[in-house]
């Protein structure tokens, strides 16, 4: 048992909410790296080109994901109207501000699609100075320079004398910095993490099957995550008090074009040349993820229709059949609220046993044969109390005494209790869904509402 507990703690520590790598150790190692990847005879431009190439390798994870160091790619500056390619670099000029994009491979795409991604704010000035002075369509480094950089990466990096009093991170851990940051970042969705990391590096291999996002939304999440990871390093620059080859700028000190300031999504553009000038055309976003993730607007519309059915049934309570119909619609309503507010999959539980519900605050459901505690939020607790009160009033008014171990259940025409089933819920779901041409499986759309808040 102790080994399982230890492994569980280790797994939790490596995922969302876990401890991030020590920022000071990473900052010191980055300064050492920026000095050790050069040769004494390198010109200033060659030094900066090596810096750009190494930084691309570093924050894209190529130093870890590549099977052999000899396979590390060379970066290629391209024009603004060129197609996106892996490790390509281009400049976008909008609102009088220039920004560099690089070609990022999406690991969530089985075909390895590549999309443009803006570089972090801390690196934009360096990347601009290099690309503006580099020919388009040619590798950033010559073959000898590329081989020298790979050789320098593989060598042991000695600590710089001015930094000898500070602790530096191990080189292999430094290479994994962005992997650890991505895995522990609580603001990155599972799909965004799957975009940045191969499947073998993700904790839950199928978590992205429950989410859907387009490239604009993923680009926004990744850009923010990169800036967060570098901001914690930039804050320590003044503390280290070392004027090295690389000075990290905080994202708050950098002027960004308006499209990078948007909330929730960052579009990508392609340059179109006109007769006298050129313009940037926004590229269409590409959808990733699974159809299990339903659009928020569709879910809202569904619950609005369900509420309308409940309200209509409430206006007709003159007969026994009307009361039973109203009771059943309220049962469907509380069942859907339970599924979406708790995230419990409907093949595990659709209702709660009376004996396993405690003060309408906590409950126990069976998950793959094992009891699992769940917490009922304030909204669900209030709705559940209202439902139980309504159920008691209707049964008392009709003189019914239905016996059921479940908190919510259906009533047949005679007033006997009927256990709620997934097929009945699926039928109601497809009846009320806005797109009648789309059949929805309840199993595939059971996504917790908290992911949309």
Shape: elongated
Helix/strand-derived class? alpha+beta
Largest sheet, strands/sense/barrel: 4 strands, mixed
**Count of alpha/pi helices:** 15
Number of strands: 13
H and E order: HHHHEEEEHHHHHEHHEEEHHEEEHEEH
User: Uncertain runs with pLDDT below 50, 5 residues or more?
Assistant: 446-453
- What count of structural domains? 2
Q: Which range does the strand content fall in?
A: 5-15%
Radius of gyration: 28 Å
Helix content: 40-55%
Spatially, the strands of the biggest sheet line up as: 1-2-3-4
Features:
453 residues; alpha+beta; hpI Integrase, Chain A; 2 domains; 4-stranded mixed beta sheet; 3-stranded antiparallel beta sheet; 15 helices; 13 strands; 41% helix; disordered C terminus
Structural summary, described in words:
- With 453 residues, this protein is an alpha+beta fold.
- It folds into two domains: 2-289, no CATH class; 296-452, Orthogonal Bundle (hpI Integrase, Chain A).
- It is built from 15 helices and 13 strands.
- It has helices at 2-13, 23-36, 44-60, 62-65, 124-131, 143-154, 171-175, 177-184, 190-196, 215-234, 237-240, 296-314, 320-342, 378-398, 422-432; strands at residues 76-77, 88-94, 97-105, 114-118, 212-214, 269-273, 278-282, 287-289, 357-358, 362-367, 370-375, 410-411, 417-418.
- The strands form five sheets. The protein has a four-stranded mixed beta sheet with strand order 1-2-3-4. Strands 9-10-11 form a three-stranded antiparallel beta sheet, with no helix packed on it. Strands 5-8 form a two-stranded antiparallel ribbon.
- The two termini are 36 Å apart.
- Residues 446-453 have low confidence and may be disordered.
């Amino acid at each position: 048992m102790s080994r399982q507990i230890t492994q569980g703690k280790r797994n939790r520590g490596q995922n969302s909410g876990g401890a991030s790598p020590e920022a000071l150790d990473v900052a010191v190692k980055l300064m050492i790296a920026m000095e050790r990847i050069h040769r004494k005879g390198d010109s200033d431009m060659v030094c900066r080109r090596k810096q750009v190439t190494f930084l691309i390798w570093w924050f894209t994870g190529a130093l870890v994901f590549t099977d052999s160091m000899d396979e590390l790619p060379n970066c290629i500056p391209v024009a603004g109207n060129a197609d996106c390619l892996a490790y390509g670099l281009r400049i976008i000029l909008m609102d009088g501000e220039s920004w560099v994009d690089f070609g990022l491979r999406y690991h969530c795409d089985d075909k390895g699609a590549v999309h443009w991604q803006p570089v972090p704010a801390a690196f934009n000035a360096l990347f601009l100075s290099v690309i503006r002075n580099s020919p388009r369509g040619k590798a950033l480094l010559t073959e000898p320079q590329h081989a020298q950089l790979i050789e320098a990466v593989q060598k042991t990096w000695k600590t710089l004398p001015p930094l000898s009093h500070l602790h530096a991170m191990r080189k292999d851990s430094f290479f994994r910095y962005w992997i650890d940051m991505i895995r522990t970042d609580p603001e990155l969705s599972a799909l965004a993490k799957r975009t940045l990391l191969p499947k073998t590096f993700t904790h839950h291999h199928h978590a992205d099957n429950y989410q859907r996002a387009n490239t604009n939304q993923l680009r926004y999440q990744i850009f923010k995550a990169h800036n967060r990871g570098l901001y914690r390093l930039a804050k320590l620059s003044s503390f280290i008090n070392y004027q090295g080859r690389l000075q990290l700028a905080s994202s708050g000190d950098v002027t960004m074009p308006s499209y990078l300031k948007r909330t929730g999504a960052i579009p990508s553009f392609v340059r179109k040349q006109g007769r006298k000038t050129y313009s940037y055309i926004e590229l269409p976003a590409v959808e990733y993820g699974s159809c299990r993730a339903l659009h928020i607007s569709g879910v809202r519309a569904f619950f609005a229709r369900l509420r309308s059915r409940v309200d209509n049934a409430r206006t007709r309570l003159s007969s026994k059949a009307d009361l039973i119909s109203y009771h059943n619609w309220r049962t469907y309503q509380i069942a859907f609220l339970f599924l979406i507010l708790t995230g419990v999959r409907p093949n595990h539980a659709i209702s709660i046993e009376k004996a396993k519900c405690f003060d309408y605050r906590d409950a126990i459901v069976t998950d793959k044969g094992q009891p699992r505690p769940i917490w009922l939020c304030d909204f669900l607790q209030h709705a559940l109390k209202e439902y139980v009160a309504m159920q008691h009033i209707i049964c008392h008014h009709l003189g019914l005494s239905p016996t059921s171990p479940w908190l919510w259940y259906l009533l047949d025409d005679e007033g006997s209790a009927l256990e709620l089933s997934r097929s009945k819920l699926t039928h109601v779901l497809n009846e009320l869904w806005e797109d009648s041409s789309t059949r929805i499986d309840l199993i595939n759309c059971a996504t917790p509402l908290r992911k949309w808040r």
